[in-house]
Amino acid sequence: MIQETGPNHPTSLYIYTDQNSYEPLARIDIDGNHEQHIRYFHTDLNGAPEELTDANGKILWECSFQLWGKRIHEIEHEPIEQNLRYQGQYLDRETGLHYNTFRYYDPDIGRFTQPDPIGLLGGLNLYQYAPNGLTWIDPLGLMNCGIAGSAKWKGFNPKKNSLTGKTGLQGHYEKHGHEFGNINQNQYLKRAKEFATKPLTSSMQEAKVGNFLIRYDKNTGEIFVDHMSKREIRTYYKDDGRSKTPFQDAIDLAREK
Q1: Residue 197: enclosing H or E segment and its boundaries?
Q2: Which of 87, 113, 205, 255 is found 20 to 30 A from 162 (Cα to Cα)?
Q3: What is residue 74's predicted lDDT score, i.e. its pLDDT?
Q4: Looking at residue 205, what is its pLDDT?
Q5: CB 51 within 8 A of CB 64
Q6: Which residues on adjacent β-strands are paired with residue 232?
């Protein structure tokens, strides 16, 4: 959703948190007098709107949801309609279904109403939204991905460490690059971004701790840690097999930061 308009609705322009992201940040409403009013979205950890406020922080709209997106209660403090739901979804108020680009989603049952257009590439269950509605998203209705998969990562911290004189990429490549075979620094960065944005599989886990997000694949041993608000990669490495709980170890380390 970029813009919407209608005879009984102000023209609304939507702004998202990042390029290629489906998480709403704000919307600009233009009324009949051509005056612009900016509204800000407040979302849950998975990017679904929970509140809409004006420029002064006054709550205009709020809604609470069950795990799979079914409304518990919705309150319009002012005559304003807000139809964005899970990332990439738009509520059809006549049917109660969520338009999800390639098909419709039913929040009452937590399933799509049509089979996946890409068939088994989206998983064995052709009607499933995602294994977990709290940390997975499917903005196009084609293939689910985690929170990390919906973001466009800038890379490692470009600033040089005062002690080592190396940038974040240089330092982490020297420490972990060899774990991925004979690859150069640019290939290491490319692999990190590809792992961060690939669709989640049954062997992968993802967790969010404050501003940090951790992703782990038990089949390959890959571990990725990033700073969500900065869209910055913090580290990317392979589990060396010494720990019985590498994913939990990465989570605990993020909690200490």
Answers
A1: helix 185-197
A2: 255
A3: 95
A4: 87
A5: no
A6: 155, 227
Q: Can you give the residue ranges of every domain in the chain?
A: 3-145, 148-256
The domain at 148-256 falls in which architecture?
Roll (3.10)
Quote the CA–CA distance of 157 and 167 in Å, as a whole number. 7
Question: Is the Cα dihedral 20, 223, 146, 228 positive or negative?
Answer: negative
**Amino acid 145: pLDDT:** 64
Phi, psi values for residue 161, rounded to 5°: -65, 135
| CA-to-CA dists, residue 219 to 42, 128, 182, 223, 249, angstroms | 36, 23, 20, 11, 17
* Both structure tokens of 138: 């499917």
Query: Is the whole-model pTM more than 0.70?
Result: no
Residues of the chain with pLDDT under 70: 20, 121-123, 143-152, 257
Q: Are strands 232-238 and 155-156 parallel, antiparallel or unpaired?
A: parallel
| pLDDT at residue number 9 | 75
Q: Distance between CA 224 and CA 238 in Å, rounded?
A: 9
Interstrand relation of 222-227 and 212-217 (parallel, antiparallel or unpaired): antiparallel
